[in-house]
Design brief:
Blueprint (H helix, E strand, L loop, with lengths): L14 H11 L2 H8 L6 H8 L4 E3 L14 E3 L2 E3 L3 E3 L12 H12 L3 E3 L7 H8 L4 E5 L5 H13 L4 E5 L9 H6 L15 H5 L5 H7 L3 E2 L2 E2 L19 H12 L4 E7 L2 H9 L4 E4 L13 H13 L7 E4 L5 H9 L4 E4 L1 H33 L12 E4 L5 E3 L1
Parallel strand pairs: 4-13, 5-6, 6-7, 7-10, 10-11, 11-12, 12-13
Antiparallel strand pairs: 1-14, 2-3, 8-9, 14-15
Helix pairs in contact: 1-14, 4-5, 4-14, 11-12, 13-14
The structure holds flavin mononucleotide and 2-OXO-4-methylpentanoic acid.
Cofactor: FMN
InterPro entries: Aldolase_TIM, Alpha-hydoxy_acid_DH_FMN, FMN-dep_DH, FMN_HAD, FMN_hydac_DH_AS
Protein name: Oxidase FUB9
Length: 400
């Protein structure tokens, strides 16, 4: 369903406009937390600029009067090959938080990933999105009981998949978070950690549960002075393919699929297939974990090639740095089945709550549809490498 833009939205015609408008509406702590990458931020920047290495080869004189942007994801139709990535703590951006994001996704028919570190419960967010597919991003906590509880709750609510984040064996170093001594404001809570009974009695234990995660000491995030040895719910240094994937499949199947989020190499893609996951998200956590890792669009081709070399072809998604409809097109041309956008959703939320998220989604969708038409394509499945050229380091352009 189309979002009716009002006149002020004419100031906002691109995701970049949205970034600027959102920045004016967030306090410094939130803006820095959302926007920064780890260390120097070079991977965060390269996730975006790497798309410039590719140019589109448009075909002409084709009837493009009926363009269909729909795709199938998690077994259901979605209006475009773009989803709202799982990002933590939406209530920092807007009081309506994840529920506003989910309501926008429902209205726009867009898949959403919910972070384990959401500020509203997975039940309430699912109620807001209705039948539109949702996936629960999971940090596999060292305390397995807690993960089991979350998985059971997600299953009961009809979540389609669990996205196991695998790029956080330890947390990346985000310097602005350290400098700002990032703190969750007192009125917010990490809702899925809270005991729902306590919550209804008005005595939420979310804060203490969160600090149990080692992430906060009371109100403040704990930062190691010596060697990095984060021991948090998010960061679990003990996870392995052999030990944990089979266990997770047992907990989730058959009701929910098990995906791994954060695969960046062909070698790990082969292992993901070997251990029987249902899908892969090529991701470097939006440049927030290992700085100086490859840009995700540069890692994508080797992951796609590795998956295609396997007997069973599982879907490959990608996220990181996608800010334009043309970026979506390029990722699909390089073999992705679907992409996710993180910060653009948060910027929309900060700008105008649910309406802002709808605007972000519609901007991307409009641009993607326009790009398909101008490239001479009417169906998403026809987007392929023939439509791309790559610029090499000497500035020469060659077909893929
Ligand atoms: C503020 C913020 C919070 C995030 N929180 C999570 C999280 O809780 N779990 C997770 O797996 N990824 C998290 N991510 C990573 C996103 O899921 C996604 O990989 C990334 O945002 C994609 O890059 P983009 O922001 O450039 O689109 C977060 C990213 C941001 C920017
Ligand atoms: C609570 C955090 C670990 C969430 C996250 O993944 C992030 O900020 O990138």
């Amino acid at each position: 369903m189309a979002y009716n833009r009002d006149i002020t939205d004419l100031q906002c015609l691109s995701i970049e406009d949205l970034r600027v408008l959102a920045a004016q509406r967030m306090d410094k702590q939130t803006r820095d937390y959302y926007n920064e990458g780890s260390d120097s931020g070079s991977t965060l920047a390269e996730n975006i600029t790497a798309y410039q290495k590719y140019r589109i080869r448009p075909r002409v004189l084709r009837d493009i009067s009926a363009i269909d942007t729909t795709v199938n994801v998690f077994g259901q139709n979605s209006c475009m090959p773009v989803g709202a990535a799982s990002t933590a703590m939406h209530c920092l951006a807007h009081p309506d938080g994840e529920i506003a994001t989910a309501s926008a996704c429902k209205k726009q028919d867009v898949v959403m990933g919910l972070s384990s570190f959401a500020t509203q419960t997975l039940e309430d967010v699912k109620d807001a999105i209705g039948d539109t597919p949702m996936a629960l991003q999971l940090y596999l906590f060292e305390d397995r009981d807690h993960s089991v509880k979350l998985i059971k709750r997600a299953k009961a609510k009809g979540y389609k998949a669990v996205l196991l984040t695998v790029d956080t064996p330890v947390l990346g170093r985000r310097n602005l978070e350290i400098r700002n001594q990032f703190t969750l404001p007192k009125h917010l809570r990490i809702a899925n950690f809270a005991n729902r009974v306590d919550e209804s009695s008005g005595d939420s234990d979310a804060k203490s549960t969160y600090s149990e995660a080692g992430y906060y000491d009371g109100e403040k995030r704990v930062w190691p002075r010596g060697p990095i040895r984060f021991h948090t719910h998010a960061a679990n240094p003990t996870l392995t393919w052999e030990k944990d994937i089979e266990w997770l499949k047992e907990q989730c199947h058959p009701e929910m699929e098990v995906w791994v989020k954060g695969v960046m190499t062909g070698e790990d893609a082969v292992l993901a297939c070997h251990y029987g996951v249902d899908g892969i998200i090529v991701s470097n956590h939006g440049g927030r974990q290992l700085n100086s890792s490859l840009a995700t669009i540069d890692a994508l081709p080797e992951v796609v090639a590795a998956v295609r070399s396997q007997e069973k072809r599982i879907p490959v998604h990608v996220d990181g740095g996608i800010r334009h409809g043309t970026d979506v097109f390029k990722a699909l041309a390089l073999g992705a089945d679907f992409v996710w956008i993180g910060r653009p959703i948060l910027w929309g939320l900060a700008y105008k709550g649910q309406e802002g998220v709808e605007l972000a989604l519609q901007l991307i969708r409009d641009e993607f549809k326009l790009c398909m038409g101008l490239a001479g394509i009417t169906k998403v499945e026809d987007i392929g490498p023939d439509y791309l050229a790559k610029i090499d380091k000497n500035g020469f352009t060659a077909r893929l």
